[in-house]
Design brief:
- By secondary structure, this protein is an alpha+beta fold.
- About 40% of the residues lie in helices and about 25% in strands.
- The protein is built from eight helices and nine strands.
- Strands 1, 2, 3, 4, 5, 6, 7, 8 and 9 form a nine-stranded antiparallel β-sheet that branches.
- α1 packs antiparallel against α2 and α2 runs antiparallel to α3.
- The radius of gyration is 28 Å and the shape is elongated.
- InterPro entries: DUF6681.
- Keywords: Membrane, Transmembrane, Transmembrane helix.
- This is DUF6681 family protein.
């Protein structure tokens, strides 16, 4: 069986196949090879001098069958089982529980990076209402692709498997986003153009894209806010995309359009008095 798995691993290594697809293939080969162990067990049990060896082969078959069944449930369904001891086996074999906890924590973090246009006190920040046209929505989707290609953004649930994602979702009682917490764009700025306060964002200052328009700052219309305050973008968060939430039979995958959430910093404009 080990030889068959090794040959399969070498063959699949020549192709760009995702880990889950490899896991499915390994499960099929391991399941088929495990019945050869059952054949050896039955053969040994037929002869008095080999019955102890037959019993050992039979026990090995049952143990391996247990893990094969777990793999079938994991790789071919969205279900989980209460008698899964895989996490304990992983820990016993030297798994990294601290890395697992860190990855799970990253999925519920408020934001995934510390990018900002400066240091601002919380009382200086206000939420905004942002709208995006179809063209701006497409620009945002293109920016997400660029962020993923450069490695700045990952959409793989921090590398966690279905069991870990389900555990995070059950603990937080919220859908779990593939990107984790809202992601702060590496570059962003505001621009007043033709009476509209536009939000620019991108990989850097050389590749800015118009991602949306601010229509309201706090509870004020944007024109009134600009009249009374000096405004600057403090954070522009990316959110949306793929997420998972608990369902009746495991995790359900949902997709939402990517959006941006903008926090602006403000300071009152100095009042100008005219001389008498």
């Amino acid at each position: 069986m080990l030889t068959a798995l090794d040959v399969l691993n070498r063959l699949l290594s020549y192709f760009n196949i995702q880990d889950k697809a490899k896991g499915k293939a390994f499960t099929v080969v391991a399941g088929a090879a495990n019945f050869y162990i059952l054949y050896l067990a039955i053969t040994c049990l037929r002869y008095p001098g080999y019955r102890i060896k037959g019993v050992l082969f039979l026990l090995l078959f049952l143990v391996l069958l247990y893990f094969v069944v777990l793999n079938v449930i994991y790789y071919y369904t969205d279900k989980t089982v209460p008698f899964d001891i895989s996490p304990k086996v992983e820990k016993l074999l030297g798994g990294n529980p601290e890395r697992m906890k860190e990855a799970e924590s990253a999925l519920t973090r408020q934001n995934q990076s510390g990018a900002a246009s400066g240091l601002f006190a919380d009382q200086q920040l206000l939420p905004t209402t942002v709208i995006s046209s179809d063209a701006q929505q497409q620009a945002l989707a293109a920016l997400v692709d660029q962020l993923v290609k450069t490695g700045a953004l990952t959409l793989n649930y921090q590398g966690l498997d279905e069991r870990a994602v389900l555990r995070v979702a059950q603990h937080s009682h919220k859908p779990v986003s593939a990107m984790g917490g809202p992601f702060d764009l590496p570059y962003f700025r505001l621009s007043q153009e033709n009476g509209h306060l536009l939000v620019y964002g991108g990989l850097n200052a050389l590749q800015p894209l118009v991602l949306g328009e601010i229509t309201q700052v706090g509870l004020m219309p944007v024109k009134q806010a600009e009249k009374d305050y000096q405004l600057a973008a403090a954070h522009v968060f990316l959110q949306g995309g793929e997420s998972k939430r608990p369902g009746r039979a495991g995790l359900l995958t949902e997709h939402a359009p990517y959006t941006i959430s903008v926090q602006v910093a403000y300071t009152p404009r100095p009042k100008v008095t005219t001389p008498q």
